[in-house]
Amino acid sequence: MAGTVFYNTNKVDLAIKNRDELMLHVEESIAKGFYIEAVVILHSLMENYTYKLLHILSIPYKASDRLFQCLEYLKIHVDKNDICVNLECLENESVSEYFFANLFSNGLADHIGAWRKKRNLMIHDVAIEELSKERFLALAIEGNQLFEEYETVLRRFIYSKRA
What we know:
By secondary structure, this protein is mostly helical. The protein has helices spanning 9-17, 19-32, 35-57, 67-80, 95-104, 108-125, 133-158.
């Protein structure tokens, strides 16, 4: 595809490979009060899992695209029902049906989008906002829960056997 630059999948694979270590670091960061650090790691993991998914589905994206843009690309393809990958694990369910049910119709993608907006406000306005540990803690905990849900949906797809 002309003009399409796929993200460096080696870096994406490394981020996913380091998932356990990174999640341990998230837990430690939250326990020690380093909430912003936890939020940054969680956002990075969500983004890298999404890049991996789009790569597997051959959905084009640019190296500069971020999480919300990539989720939007996926939604466009799900809505068009034009994802042409068959998976044994999904039985009679199409890939589009799987992602519609597990990511879009249940609101998970919207919750991730809302969390991302709060994360952006926190990250970009941290120097001018009144510091609230409670707000940062809540954002870290919410991000952790959303990542676990998101990862479950994506891992079932990414690491399944293709028919």
